[in-house]
Amino acid sequence: MPSSLHNTSALILRNRAALTAPLCLLNPPDDALAIQLQQERHELLTAISPDFAVFQRLRPALGTAITYCAWPAITTPAALVVIFQPREKKLLEMWLAAIAATAGTGTEIWLVGENAAGIKSCEKRLRRIADAVSKKDSARHCSLFSGQVVPARAANTLADFAHWIDVGYRNRNYRLLSYPGVFAYRRLDPGSALLMESLATAPVAGDLLDFGCGTGVIGIAAADRDGVGRVNLIDSNALAVAAAEHNSAAHPRLTVFPSDGYSAVTGRYDHILSNPPFHQGVRQVLAVTERMIGQAPEHLRPGGELRFVANRHLPYVATAKRHFASVRILDRDNRFQVVSCRRPLRI
Ligand SMILES: C[S@@+](CC[C@H](N)C(=O)[O-])C[C@H]1O[C@@H](n2cnc3c(N)ncnc32)[C@H](O)[C@@H]1O
Description:
Blueprint: H1 7-14, E1 23-26, H2 33-40, E2 45-49, H3 52-62, E3 66-68, E4 80-84, H4 89-102, E5 108-114, H5 123-127, E6 130-139, E7 142-149, E8 163-169, E9 172-178, H6 190-201, E10 206-211, H7 217-223, E11 228-235, H8 238-247, E12 254-258, E13 269-274, E14 279-280, E15 283-284, H9 287-295, E16 300-311, H10 316-323, E17 324-332, E18 336-344
Parallel strand pairs: 1-2, 1-4, 2-3, 4-5, 10-11, 10-13, 11-12, 13-16
Antiparallel strand pairs: 5-7, 6-7, 8-9, 14-15, 16-18, 17-18
Helix pairs in contact: 6-7, 9-10
The chain binds S-adenosylmethionine.
């Protein structure tokens, strides 16, 4: 758990005297705010996280008060719901619809986010489900808005936010469900496409792990290839897990489960395939992918391969060479390269 508080958390703490209970935190940051609030005086605190990493870190302290879910329904009564702004505006709209559909009329809502992430333009979205909306505070390059839930115009559910992507791959068409905030949302990512093409030129066989599966496109396409056995798909984003579960429901050899990196992965695989993440909020993060590479040897069978695609400017080949004796570029275009890593330097 990072010891320093995020700027959004600091802004909430600045306003702690106005916090009312029961209090629900939606999408709390990866810091100690939720634990601090629970210890101070908000024993009537619940939290909802769509991020398995945050959920796993807060779970020991919050116990059953924190839930990990794709559709943030307010199932425990709350006088105040504090929303930490997600990066995608469409995802915020979905969360607001979930709150409008499940929180009682008059429930107070606070919406906090970084100015650089566009929190100011979110005020108008809050107005769609709340009245008496106003700016409550701003500091540390963040703003905090508040309002009160008005009766919902529509009783939305998660299904109302489904979006479909058609992916043509090797004479087959995959119609994949996606949700706001899930990668990919509108179309197949060109990096994923390059990795999928490599499955034909350098075939995979045996058991596979799709690390950071998003909609599940890579694992689903790989599962259709000859010689492939069990395919496990993992992601930390609850909406990605929900989408991938839907998309793989017809394939008995596919299993989807939430995991922060390899945190929930127990077995070993013949291939780990990934188009790994490189954004968290508005920041580029390399740490998840660095860990994916560094810990891959513990999850590969003898002779196994880690194969990933990444932007060519990212420093992952150097990382891979610190952990594998054989690091090869299988394919590249002007933006991406597919890297194949074999023969771990330690197991
Ligand atoms: C670039 S997307 C690739 C999605 C999908 N494989 C595709 O090719 O369309 C990276 C994925 O990694 C997931 N992710 C981010 N952090 C993660 C973590 N700590 N553990 C597991 N998955 C993570 C994201 O939610 C996202 O779905």
